[in-house]
Write a structure and sequence with these properties.
This protein is of the alpha/beta class. Helices cover 35% and strands 23% of the residues. It folds into two domains: 104 residues, Roll (Urease, subunit C, domain 1), CATH 2.30.40.10; 275 residues, TIM Barrel, CATH 3.20.20. An eight-stranded parallel β-sheet has the order 5-6-7-8-9-10-11-12. Strands 3-2-1-4-13-14-15 form a seven-stranded mixed β-sheet, with no helix packed on it. Helix 4 links the parallel strand 6 and strand 7. The structure holds N-(iminomethyl)-L-glutamic acid and fe (iii) ion. Fe (iii) ion binds next to loops.
Length: 394
């Protein structure tokens, strides 16, 4: 690839760096700011009038708008085929969400061609990028055979470094009478086929999916072959998911719609990030959890879209921020941090989710003078430009 010229982005009304060293706050704000990038990385950040000038550098005018780090969307299911909008309509008419719907998507995914699956995932990835996501995690989990999980993961890995093996999404129909046999398949041949295409292993530990013992067994098998653990936990009921995740050193426990006082203490004393998925409560019309007890206990929280056809068919992190603020009682600062630095922590990535010197030059120029507008103007596309690794992609 060609070397990129040094670029100065100036005339930024408000720059969010997530570098607390800059102003002593979590968001590391700079007013009237500029940022210099070189070779895909942040070279300098500060007040515009102090920016280093260089005759050869390119200059981008942010037109008095805000600049924030690119969103880090740490939980997605983009490899699938088919539509479940009728399910959504049924729920809006009073029906309940059930993980049984996953089997419907599994059926269609198994029948789909590689090409159609790849195209569908690419289209969703483009949608996600255009709404400001510069780092994305993508799971398998709608194949649930050795071959279908392997091809799902090949597609995921072609789109991101953050690919996750979710063979343990639900017990597929053909194993309903012998669930332990399916657990053995996941821990054996399926993991063997998956491991070279995945960085992470995930299990849906919940009612109607996998119990804590099965979850431990599967995560330990994954850890044994070098995958790192993360977890779907406590979406449908208060269970042991969070405790199992912390016990096994999961990078993140996701959904956590239901949590206990003991879960708060466990998370606060651990390095495990708690990830809320507000689109899932929205789309399943479930009571929104209150994030404040976790925030007050100092738990690191991420927020993510959980983009999938069943429980949360949105790729839009601005929407998720608005929900987190309005319904989960995040402050706008906490929500933005959780959508950027929090997501990076959930993926154990150091160089994204912030704009400190040396970080990857992944940032968004907003159509707004302040990040507050992300929650203040819900449903409005406020993403003017998207830059990743120092290149303008939107
Ligand atoms: O994260 N909860 C489990 N898995 C997905 C939903 C999958 C589906 O309904 O298709 C989730 O919400
Ligand atoms: Fe999920």
């Amino acid at each position: 690839m060609n070397k990129l010229p040094r670029t100065l982005i100036q005339n930024i009304s408000q720059l969010v760096t997530n570098d607390p060293l800059l102003d002593g706050t979590q968001l590391g704000l700079v007013q009237n700011a500029a940022i210099v990038i070189e070779d895909g990385k942040v070279l300098w950040v500060g007040e515009s009038n102090k920016a280093p000038r260089d005759d050869d550098q390119e200059v981008v005018d942010a037109n008095g708008q805000a600049v924030i780090p690119g969103f880090v969307d740490s939980h997605n299911h983009l490899v699938f085929m088919g539509d479940r909008s009728a399910d959504f309509a049924r729920r809006m008419a009073g029906g309940q969400y059930s993980p049984d719907g996953i089997s419907y998507t599994v059926g269609l995914t198994r029948q789909a061609s590689n090409n159609d699956l790849q195209k569908n995932a690419e289209n969703l990835l483009t949608e996600s990028l255009n709404s400001g996501t510069t780092t994305i995690e993508i799971k398998s989990g709608y194949g649930l055979t050795v071959a279908d999980e392997e091809r799902s993961l090949k597609i995921a890995a072609s789109l991101t470094k953050e690919s996750t093996f979710l063979g343990a999404h639900v017990i597929p129909e053909e194993f309903k009478a012998a669930p332990e046999d399916y657990v053995d398949l996941v821990c054996g041949p399926m993991l063997e086929a998956a491991k070279s295409h995945a960085k992470w292993i995930d299990v849906f530990c919940d009612r109607g999916a996998f119990n804590p013992e099965q979850t431990r067994k599967i995560l330990k098998a994954g850890i044994g072959v070098g995958l790192k653990p993360r977890l779907h936990a406590n979406q449908l009921e208060q269970g042991e998911g969070i405790a199992v995740g912390v016990e096994l050193g999961a990078a993140s426990v996701d959904h956590i719609t239901h949590y206990s006082q003991a879960d708060i203490s466990l998370l606060a004393a651990s390095t495990t990030v708690g990830t809320f998925l507000p689109g899932a409560e929205f789309s399943t019309r479930t009571k929104y959890p209150d994030a404040r007890p976790l925030l007050e206990a100092g738990v690191s929280l991420a927020i993510a879209t959980d983009c999938n056809p069943g429980s949360s068919y949105t790729s839009n992190m601005s929407f998720v921020i608005a929900l987190a603020v309005r319904e989960f009682f995040f402050s706008p600062e906490q929500a933005l941090w959780s959508a950027t630095k929090g997501g990076a922590k959930a993926l154990q990535l150091q160089d994204v989710g912030h704009l400190g010197v040396g970080a990857s030059a992944d940032f968004l120029i907003l159509k707004a003078p302040s990040y507050l507008h992300l929650a203040y103007r819900p449903g409005v596309d406020l993403i003017e430009q998207v830059w990743r690794n120092g290149r303008k992609l939107k």
